[in-house]
Amino acid sequence: MNENFGRCDRESKCGFFEKPKGEKLTKHEYIHKKPKPTSFHEYSLVSKSGRNFKENNFIQFVKHLFGDIATKEVIKKYLIGTSKKWNGATVFWQIDNAQKVRHGKIMLYDVVSGKRKKNQSGKAYISSVRSELKLDSFNLNQCLFGLHLINESESISLAIVESEKTAVLMSVFKPEYVWLATGSKSGFKYEYLKPLRSYTVIGFPDKSEYNSWSDKAIELNSLGFNITVSKWLEETNYKEGTDLADVLIGEKHYKNIKPKKKSNVKPIEIINTPTEIIVKKLASKNPQILNLIKVFDLTDNNGTDIRV
């Protein structure tokens, strides 16, 4: 059997279909190969990593930004760990909505700037728990970082960014949303977003990634998703690759250094849901509508709170 030929029948509809060519090859046998079961880490690994935060560069950076209380909250929320792989390294655990541990990404950040550290060749320090434990037979099937939080929150409005660092920081900057991360540019896809089909989702791509995420959102919405993608960063003058956390960290430092001078950076626009847009139009003619929403704690058809 030649593995270069076959057809993909996954729900993701990747479209792969390649068959042998030639006039004599008119009949072909299709063999269904059952996918290997997903491997999971023991939850005890998460617990064991949740210590030595004084030696964790990323956590110390968060502490410098937000203080002890907020830092303890994000550690508990995202179950952030510390790794001995490199001095100061962080573990970002991928725990799915069934509370199963799928992946542990190990990364090294600079304690002062919060940026990812790189070696002399310019390559970022990144590894994984499965690699460090030499789990060769581990069948990795990743999920969104923070996915376990969707079962713990009353809100069904979710915000998605690319990096784990950004999701953690944005959960402090903008706590009205549950922040998740794809972990990579290519992670905004059906396989990762499938558990979010019944949620209202807002994507916040890094600068220069808007078109890619927007195209994918259009495709997924045709399958029953409810995803909007923010164009806020794309319309700014920030350099390519800039994310929300970069902007807000810069704003926070700027305000601390020059509190009397106003910043010329426009505030981040959180996208309104279709219901909220209608409500605002109606409220411009009859403001009492807003009081009714507050008094009766009204939601839209998806159960999402209407912000007034």
Strand content: 5-15%
How many domains, in number, for the residues? 3
Strand runs, count: 10
Helix/strand-derived category reads alpha/beta
Corresponding CATH architecture of the largest domain? 3-Layer(aba) Sandwich
Q: Which residues sit in consecutive blocks of at least 5 with pLDDT less than 50? A: 257-269
Any idea what the radius of gyration is?
A: 22 Å
- What's the helix-strand series? EEHHHEEEEHEHEHEHEHHH
What is the CATH level 1 assignment of the largest domain?
A: Alpha Beta
The CATH topology name of the largest domain reads Dna Topoisomerase Vi A Subunit, Chain: A, domain 2
Q: How many individual helices? A: 10
Strand order, biggest sheet? 3-4-5-6
Q: Characterize the main sheet.
A: 4 strands, antiparallel
Helix content: 25-40%
Mean pLDDT comes to 83
What is the overall silhouette? globular
N/C terminus separation: 61 Å
Essential attributes:
single chain, 308 residues, alpha/beta, Dna Topoisomerase Vi A Subunit, Chain: A, domain 2, 3 domains, four-stranded antiparallel beta sheet, 10 helices, 30% helix, globular
